[in-house]
Amino acid sequence: MKPPILEMNGIFKSFNGIPVLKDVDFSVKQGEIHALMGGNGAGKSTLMKILTGVYSADRGEVKLDDNVVAIRNYEDARSNGISMIFQEFSLIPTLTVAQNIYLTRESKTSLGLLDDKANEKKAAKLLAELGVDIQPSDLVQDLGVGYWQMTEIAKALSQEAKILIMDEPTSSLTKTETEVLFTFMNKLKAKGYAIIYISHRMDEIFRVCDRITIMRDGRKISTSQISETSMDQVITDIVGVASGKAFEWVERPYDEAGEPAFEVRELTAGDKVRQVSLRIQPGEIVGIAGLMGSGRTELLRAIFGIDRIHSGEIYVRGRRCAIRNPSDAIAAGIALIPEDRRVQGLVLQHSVRDNMILPILAKVRRGPLLDGKKMNELSRELVKRLNIKTDSISKASNLLSGGNQQKIVLAKWLANHPEVLLLDEPTIGVDIGAKTEIVDIIRELAESGKAILVVSSELQELLALSDRVLIMHEGRMGKSMKRQDIESEEGLQYAIQGY
Amino acid sequence: MQSRDTELRESKQGMLAAVKHFPWRNYIVYIAFVGVFAYFAISLFDQGFMTTGNLLNIIRQTAIIALMALAMTFVISTGEIDLSVGSTAALASLTGAYALQSGLGVLGGVVAGLGTGLLVGLVNGLLVTKAAIPSFLVTLASMGAVKGMAMWVTDTAPVPITNATFNFWFGSGNLGTIPVLLIWMVVFTVIAHVLLRKTAFGRQTLATGGNENAARFSGVKTGRIKLLVFLGTGLMAGLAGLLYAGRMNAGRFSFGEGDELSVIAAVILGGTSLFGGVGTIIGTLVGALMMGTINNGLIIMGLDVSQQMMIKGLIIILAVVFGRKAIRK
Is the separation of the CB atoms in A430 and A406 below 8 Å? Predict the structure, then answer.
């Protein structure tokens, strides 16, 4: 066993008297990828913020190579070889790879001017060592998102980083980019670097990580070798009490023969969607599977009036609806939970309440004015119904965890009593606990007779929810499969790839 | 005993936390205003700063800026900007004056002035929403174009107004000791406050500025909201032009020169975020009053214009530094 290069012992931290980390021990060895998992609010971000000097611990010590170190700010962390890999935002897209890597530390000529050639040479050497196939003179904005992270990592390594912290690194990557990143991570591992890998994606963790530490409610629950644990065990550790059959499909009876609640005929829209037809019965959950770029998101956007519809018809409860913009769609009884809650779902600096009532302002009016009492009552009711964890409805929504934010986005539409609910990646970046809750809410809505259309890249989730799965391919609707006929995730995977 | 102790300690901690977590930054403009006012009230008491006459003077000097700043609060709340308000006020003072001269009466003058403002607002709004040109560029251009138009139609000569009713109600009159301008300011402040805080339009304005995408996905017609807020600044710039005209008994191309900066400064000082999404009407009013008070106090202190400008600039920087650190998300 290689000795741990990083040890955090008995870390305790409280905010305003409320403990958020309770004597947490955490260690990382040389040359390992160590997964850190836990629900939202479990304390993993706080722990990492202590490690990178954003917060300081009330108690406990951080040891690097057996020496106690004080990390008071990000600079301290960096000089101790600890580096956080941000997903985006921390590179300057209009500069080249080399310029980004050596920003503020550029080689200079004897006249004190920037020596781009020397920097590019250094960068080329570094990138070659890491086996990253990009040119140092490329502009960052011309690279795929996957390479942004590698540039970021190269930058960290050029600053003598030994421990890299990666928070949901694959969430914005395509499948191929993810593969490239994993290969790269394994290379880093072989060179002796340590990676702390924070993710909600179980399959990825089981593929690339060596050990896993699970946190819940500010405590460390377990640390184990990946090879010695199982997905069930991990879920139990994260959720605590067993959460039942959230991820098993439950067959629900619904009216399969009657008039459809929602129908799309020969819809062609935007640049992607080509002659798509589908129908959903009341109470039915229809899932759409497909590869990245197959037009799933675009289909939902078109139905909701965001992308331009060129031809085709949309019917809600047998009534034909002309949809030119989102307000038309809303008026027709359609709701969309968009794929990116931070960009499309929420006004982040506004409160929980203000976000919830935004689509239903017309319903909380008294005369020309908004009715404060009604707005408060309604939002409190929704907070309760969806079990949203917030101390107040006037708390800014960006202070809530991802799962709770996603519930706010759901709540926005529940009060509007839509007939048709379109959900785009409804549980992306959400912890297991919130995920099961969201899955339950979706089922409950179907139970009440609504038509539900779900797009998800997580096949497990798609299989747990859908009564029927449609496969999209290059903007067109392909196979339609009844849930009963799909035997396993592999079967669905095969159908998606099998064109 | 022990539990009493704990309780006591907790309540103490609670109070401390309350003081510590009170959002001071949100109230900086009010605190600064009280500070500035108290300073002048004490140091300039003998020079007559606190007399009713002088205080009403501050109102007169502030009201027109404040009225435009109310509308500007909406524009800035959507994340846009309108630089054309000063020029629009000048043109509106002229069209109003021409209408009065040609015997269309008070109503005619008002319609002409406000119509001019609305027209400029409409053009600005359409260029921003339909042609998708950044509002900074659109209104920078219209600021120049409108000003040029005002100079061209009058050949830079003033257009006198002899209608006493107009001059009374739009600028120079007093009801008892209360200046008509004060009434305009109070009425529109109340309207603007209710509009921003208590109506669907206000909520949608803030949502548009806070996250245009999310607002659109929530069914807010963000283009229409933006068009409306530009119509708003146009309308209020039109009113400001009429008030300048009534106060000076003439329309003139030079009215409102540089007002865009005072107006925007009042809004930002008040606590409205230049990035959109956060806006406060009462803050804007206090921001405008504070600038007026500083102006007035410095004049009484006998500082010359150059010194006044320097001090004003410094105060704006300080207020923004202390007040808006929270803006960084």
Answer: yes
The answer to whether the CB of B89 falls within 8 A of the CB of B125 is no
Q: Name the β-bridge partners of A26.
A: A8
Q: Answer yes or no: do A318 and A228 share one domain.
A: no
Residue A383 DSSP SS3: helix
C-alpha dist (Å) from residue B226 to A73, B65, B71, B222, B301:
42, 22, 12, 6, 43
A192 and A261 belong to one structural domain: no
Name the residue facing B215 among A304, A325, A347 (closest C-beta).
A347
Q: At A424, which CATH number?
A: 3.40.50.300
Establish if B279 touches chain A: CB-CB under 8 angstroms.
Answer: no
For residue A57, count CB atoms less than 10 angstroms from its CB and return exposed for 0-12, middle for 13-18, buried for 19 or more. Answer: buried
Query: Beta strands A285-290 and A451-455: pairing type?
Result: parallel
Q: Give burial (CB, 10 Å; 0-12/13-18/19+) of B306.
A: exposed
The pLDDT tens digits for B190-234 are 999 999 998 999 999 999 999 999 999 988 999 999 999 999 999
DSSP A397: G
Two structure tokens written together for A335 = 């709701």
Contact A464, A246 (CB under 8 A): yes
- B107 contact partners, CB below 8 Å, separation of at least 6: none
Are A315 and A396 found together in one domain? yes
pLDDT of amino acid B6: 52
Nearest CA to A198 out of A170, A220, A233, A179 is that of A170
Give the side-chain half-sphere CA count within 13 A for B216: 17
If one counts the domains in chain B, the total is: 1
- At B251 the three-state DSSP class reads strand
- The Cα–Cα gap between A463 and A115 comes to 56
Read off φ and ψ for residue A376, nearest 5 degrees: -65, -45
Q: How far is CA B26 from the centre of its chain?
A: 18
- Mind giving me the DSSP string for A298-344? HHHHHHTTSSPEEEEEEEETTEEE--SSHHHHHHTTEEEE-S-IIII
Do the Cβ atoms of A350 and B206 come within 8 Å? yes
Q: What is the CATH number of the domain that holds B202?
A: 1.10.3470
Q: What number of C-beta contacts closer than 8 Å exist between A and B?
A: 74
Cβ-proximal residues to A460 (8 Å cutoff; 6+ apart), any chain: A247, A489
Coil, helix or strand for A429? coil
Range(s) of the domain holding residue A300: 245-497
Chain A CB within 8 Å of residue B204 CB: yes
**Residue stretches of chain A with pLDDT short of 50:** 1, 242-244, 499
Indicate whether this complex's ipTM tops 0.90. Answer: no
Structural domain count, chain A: 2
CB contact under 8 A, B17 and A16: yes
